[in-house]
Design goal:
single chain, two-stranded antiparallel sheet, 2 domains, about 55% helix
Length: about 150
């Protein structure tokens, strides 16, 4: 087994003056590693397959998923019930989203502030009701007390 790497000029320029490390895996090791990151789901009562791949590089994940889907369709094209095609190609998101500690902290602070405002608003709204009930209750009690004195 040999290794052939022919990068373009831009790639070579990016690594100029730096040490480059390679790791070489056998096809079996590569397929096992891919299998641990690949999920294929066929929903119940459905003939569709849903593929997803976990990869730190979303563009490489999209290329890999498209290659797997196209190879599946090409390989199974001769089957009797085959009307197989790729409905939606995998597309990498334009900007990968990754939460940073600062973003998570800001989000929880905002949620805390909104929750505190909600609790304060609810307490303010309920405070008037409780006062009215107390006043109404005390009026009722004073009326009941006055009626008891009259009957004696």
């Amino acid at each position: 087994m040999g290794l052939r790497w022919q990068p373009d000029a831009a790639t070579l320029a990016r690594y100029a003056g730096r040490e480059v490390h390679f790791s070489v895996s056998t096809p079996r090791e590569t397929s096992i590693a891919l299998q641990t990151r690949l999920t294929i789901i066929q929903p119940a009562n459905n003939s569709f397959l849903q593929l997803s791949l976990t990869d730190p590089d979303p563009h490489r994940a999209a290329r890999t998923l498209n290659a797997i889907a196209n190879a599946y369709v090409a390989k199974n094209h001769d089957l009797a019930d085959a009307r197989k095609s790729v409905l939606d190609s995998a597309v990498a998101p334009p900007l990968p989203f990754k939460n940073s500690a600062a973003q998570l902290f800001s989000m929880w602070v905002a949620i805390g502030i909104i929750a505190a405002i909600g609790v304060a608003f609810a307490a303010s709204a309920l405070e008037g009701r409780v006062r009215r009930e107390r006043i109404a209750g005390s009026d009722w009690l004073s009326l009941a007390h006055a009626e008891m004195k009259e009957t004696e």
